[in-house]
What does this fold into?
Amino acid sequence: MKLPVYLYGHPVLRRKCADITPGYPELQKLIADMFETMYASEGVGLAAPQIGRNDRIVVIDADPVGEQFPECKGRKFTLINPEIEILDGEKVSRAEGCLSLPGLSENVARTEHIMLRWLDENLEPRQEEISGFLARIVQHECDHLEGKLYIDHISPIRKQLIKGKLNSIVAGRTACDYPVRYAPKKIK
It folds into this structure.
């Protein structure tokens, strides 16, 4: 089932997520719904807070960018309770966008070599060294589980320059090609 994507300004995007435990109700349905929502929104990753859930789960299908970034070719997986260890290497700045921040893109510096530990969709433990653009996707999505957005990694000057666009998202003045949920209106 396609679910609405929660947009910037909604409090769920700023909460640290809780671990998924064995016996989690309807886990496979949640995973399927997250993939369907991600595909319908034309994203390559989606974290549970983006659908209003406070759970440590991410879905990624990086294959659509595989022609440009070969390390992404054929890479589709579910990350449950992921942990990232930053490995050696300097940070590389690349443009990032986010389904929760439609119409925006900013350069973000990230280390592009990580060790990833996670549980897969069957709650089996996995571990892998990941590099390049795929490492960026993983870090971006895992940031959501900590209540962080990619704009938290940009300079205060850049944040000031995009403040009007951010305010437009919060105010519900943003057009999207996918179902969305705006931040609750504040009572004055």
